[in-house]
Amino acid sequence: MSSYASEFLTVALAHALAVASPGPDFALILRQSVRHGRKTAVLGSWGIATGILVHVTWALLGVALLIRNTPLLFQWLQYLAAAWLAWMGIQSLRSRPAAKPDTEQPPAAAHAWLAGFLTNVLNAKATLFFLALFTVVISPKTPTWLQVGYGLWMSLATGLWFTIVALLFTRPRWQARYRQWEHWIERGMGLVLLFLAAGILLPAQGLQA
User: Does the pTM of the predicted model rise above 0.85?
Assistant: First the structure.
């Protein structure tokens, strides 16, 4: 096996473990799936995948390293991420029983995609993950075109993974159960999102101190 093939397998495995772990991206797709349906959740999935390309670009251009080594810039990125998650969490907590849930209009396609994109691109932990990946795992001798290929693969894999998650959570049986407990599930997701926001905000406060 060539060194590049071995390197790609390491990158693919590290990314698979990271993308499958619970976090803001997963919470968003779960919420979109049960609240707005398959189309919205799939669009959100590919918004997340596009966000991956931003992190890869930052890592390749050295912007991720600049963010990491500039405490104030890194701190404000964390604040933005926390504010975005907190806003979604508050919207979920305000959920009330709907008299006719099937009549609810899903968000526009652009809004569904943008929610996924912003949730991923504002994730400071994702920035650090890709920085570590491109500085520790991937050799500086690896051709740039191949590093770009790694990034495209991770974006594609991310989009496919969250599309599968969306398909699973929009199955009719799951949706039927969800409708019975809709507002309570929404409020539970709101608490999860607020918890994630707090988890981002506390380390940011530590940087300021």
Answer: no
